[in-house]
Amino acid sequence: MGNSRLGKSSYRNVLLGATLLVSACAFTEEALWPSLTGEDPAGRNRGQAAQPARAGQPAAQPSQAAPAPMSMPAPTAQPPLGTGVFQPTGVTPGTPTGTEVGRKVNDMREELRQVQGAISTHNSGLQQIRAKIIQDSQRYHGTIAAVNARLQIGTTPGNPILVQQYNSAQTDLEKLHEDVGEMNKLATDVAGTSSKAAFLSEASRATRGVSGAVDEDHRQLSVLEDEVDRTVVLIDRLIKEVSTDVRRQTNYIAGEKANLNTVGAAIKTGEIYGASLGQIAKDAQDRAHPVAAGEARDPGGRRPLVVIRFDRTDVPYQQALYSAVSRVLERRPDAVFDLVAVAPAVGGAAREAVNTNRSRRHAEGVLRSLVEMGLPPSRVAISTRTLAEARVNEVHLYLR
Fold first, then answer.
1. Alpha-carbon distance 245 to 183, whole Å?
2. pTM
3. Residue 90: inside a domain, yes or no?
4. How far apart are CA 352 and CA 387, in angstroms?
5. 394-399 and 306-309 strand pairing
6. pLDDT tens-digit series, residues 280-305
7. In terms of domains, do 145 and 22 share one?
8. 33: DSSP letter
9. What is the pLDDT of residues 15-41, one digit of tens each?
10. Around Cβ 397, how many Cβ atoms within 10 Å?
């Protein structure tokens, strides 16, 4: 296919581990392997297609290329919190001089005490919020670790114990969100105190130009200016550290919400998935090198990454779907997908319409699964088509 086609060797590395023979669910590599059921998932040679599993047959049979069982994902690391302690050094007392400048210096000294008192209050609040974030985070990670451990060894779909733990984890994550909200409010309060400190710094310098001062006034004013400057530096450090904490924790919580949705999807099926698909793409993007222009688009005539055949109720496709998409995102973190609902073109126009409607609903269900796994819905486009060779409703997933 020339430069527009993914290189065979690199693409094989992406999908080799995801190639499975699962009843009602098949994988193919673009133009490299035929369907492992003996049929061409692009719609050709369907006369050789394998029949659906008969009663008494195992629901899933791994092929020789089946991947190793999914390992439990490492928990997302809690981003580090700042460690700074912001305690002002205090204000040097002065003596009255009887001049107007001396009175101004005394007033500004009192204002500086108020600013430093506010900084001390902000510092105490910051340390308390940090301690609460650590406590809530430890509880959240402990709950998620217990859920993942149970999923790792296998469990029943919708296990009520895991559902209860999942709900508890949601509560803990919401507490973390509230903690960050309190820190964000603190950042607003600190910004207000910073404005007062900046105004005081300007006022102290302007006072030096006021006439009628004695030497003692200027000496005390110099001491005050130094202390105001140190206070401004301290509050600037406080603002920077609080802002950094808010940014890191906000991004972390957003990522954990996506991961928690993936855990919820895993609980529904009773099988462990791994990190959110969105997180996998983000991590891969952080490590990725630029993609060659020839790899940017897949040419026409492509084979699907995944074929799901809905030849029964409750087709167990989720684990295999996650495995295939996660491997693609590790290779191409900016990948987007086409989800095609394929309906059999048999039985006349009325029957085709019924099949198309059912196939579309299947595709929407697959899309919901992908979103629950953490893939942004903007990365997937749904379309429909009919195919005379199709025997049952299918959903095909393509790399665009």
1. 8
2. 0.55
3. no
4. 10
5. antiparallel
6. 666 655 443 333 333 323 335 778 88
7. no
8. S
9. 433 333 333 454 433 322 222 233 333
10. 23
- Which of 251, 269, 287 is the endpoint of a domain? 269
Q: Strands of 25-27's sheet, edge to edge? A: 21-22, 25-27, 306-309, 394-399, 337-344, 380-387
* Secondary structure of residue 63 in the 3-state scheme: coil
Both tokens assigned to 366:
């697959």
Q: Give CA–CA dist 230/220, Å, rounded.
A: 16
Counted domains in the chain: 2
Q: Is 178:294 a contact under the CB 8 Å cutoff?
A: no
Domain harbouring 52, CATH code: 3.30.1330
Task: Identify the CA nearest to 345 among candidates 356, 334, 335, 337.
Answer: 356
Contact predicate 218/208, CB 8 Å: yes
Name residue 2's amino acid.
G
Does one domain contain both 125 and 210?
yes
CA 174 to chain centre: 15
Lookup: tokens for 14: 């992406």
State which residues form the domain around 28: 2-70+303-399
Pair (165, 222) in one structural domain = yes
Report the alpha-carbon distance of residue 389 to residue 371 in Å, rounded: 30
Residue 148 within a domain: yes
What mean pLDDT is predicted for residues 348-369?
Answer: 86
| Pairing verdict, β 306-309 and 337-344 | unpaired
